[in-house]
């Protein structure tokens, strides 16, 4: 949890000692902002579901951002980025560098790297013609479960559209990763998507992920393929598929300075506004978005040591819930 958390609730613990307890965190201020000015109640509700305090933002300037731990942005335009956002990009970049989390869900996609801190190398491709109604999750994605619930490889499918394009994994800055993917980017022989989606479990699931979903050095990859063939007497399931570095990211993340950037080609404003088929609308609004926010900014946790410290300072006969 970054150091921007509001301090007002910390007084509840009753002692500065409690503030130093490991594993504790407090609710953060999460701003929500639409580049077209259409801030939705569902956006605020997702922030609350993630355990944080929603703050409506009309202009993301330096003064506003100084009070935020994260800023969740939607872009409702299919043709440009809002000037109220781009004119404040320097302030946004500075805030992320100082520890703020920036989350952007974008319809336009084209040139998105230019409106993201540290995103100059990002290859964001707008594509609404194919693969735009299917979203899967790579093995180990941290947003599969969270404060909103559990997602699987069908939870976000069937949208109109589920995505407006993709980011190539190889273009991510150092430390970046794919949180959700368009499976068309990883399809090989037999229509392979992900190891979990193919039904693998146990050793096969682990080995499949090592071969098909996790980037390896050439020698390590050769070793894993040889192990697979020797044990299972068949080619790996992704034979003929592009390597993980060329997969199409629907939602991606990377660190920047002391903060983090999460970028997505999901037209989330559409679903937050109550439009689109359901499913997947509710899954986007009440499961996916809280999980993304909850992973980027973990929800408040009062651990056992903190509870004990609080109990010792409670009035006689008092009880810590």
UniProtKB/TrEMBL annotation:
Keywords on record: Signal
Signal peptide, first to last residue: 1-27
Superkingdom, natural source: Bacteria
UniProt KW Signal keyword: yes
This protein's name: Uncharacterized protein
């Amino acid at each position: 949890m970054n150091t921007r958390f509001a301090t007002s609730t910390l007084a509840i613990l009753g002692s500065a000692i409690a503030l130093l307890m490991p594993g504790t965190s407090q609710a953060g201020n999460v701003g929500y902002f639409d580049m077209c000015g259409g801030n939705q109640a569902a956006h605020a509700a997702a922030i609350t579901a993630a355990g944080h305090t929603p703050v409506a933002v009309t202009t993301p300037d330096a003064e506003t951002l100084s009070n935020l731990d994260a800023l969740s942005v939607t872009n409702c335009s299919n043709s440009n980025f809002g000037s109220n956002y781009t004119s404040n990009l320097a302030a946004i970049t500075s805030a992320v560098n100082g520890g703020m989390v920036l989350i952007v869900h974008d319809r336009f996609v084209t040139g998105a790297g230019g409106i993201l801190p540290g995103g100059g190398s990002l290859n964001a491709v707008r594509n609404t013609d194919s693969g735009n109604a299917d979203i899967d999750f790579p093995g180990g994605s941290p947003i599969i479960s969270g404060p909103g619930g559990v997602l699987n490889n069908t939870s976000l499918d069937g949208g109109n559209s589920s995505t407006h394009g993709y980011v190539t994994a190889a273009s991510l800055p150092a430390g970046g990763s794919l949180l959700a993917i368009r499976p068309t980017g990883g399809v090989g022989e037999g229509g392979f998507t992900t190891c979990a989606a193919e039904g693998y479990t146990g050793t096969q699931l682990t080995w499949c992920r090592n071969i098909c979903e996790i980037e390896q050095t050439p020698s390590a990859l050769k070793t894993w393929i040889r192990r697979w063939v020797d044990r299972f007497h068949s080619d790996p399931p992704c034979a003929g598929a592009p390597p993980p570095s060329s997969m199409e990211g629907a939602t991606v993340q990377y660190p920047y300075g002391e903060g983090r950037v999460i970028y997505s080609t999901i037209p989330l404003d559409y679903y937050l506004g109550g439009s689109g088929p359901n499913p997947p609308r509710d899954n986007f609004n009440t499961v996916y978005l809280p999980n993304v926010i909850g992973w980027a900014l973990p929800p408040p946790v009062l651990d056992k040591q903190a509870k004990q410290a609080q109990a010792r300072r409670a009035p006689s006969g008092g009880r810590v819930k």
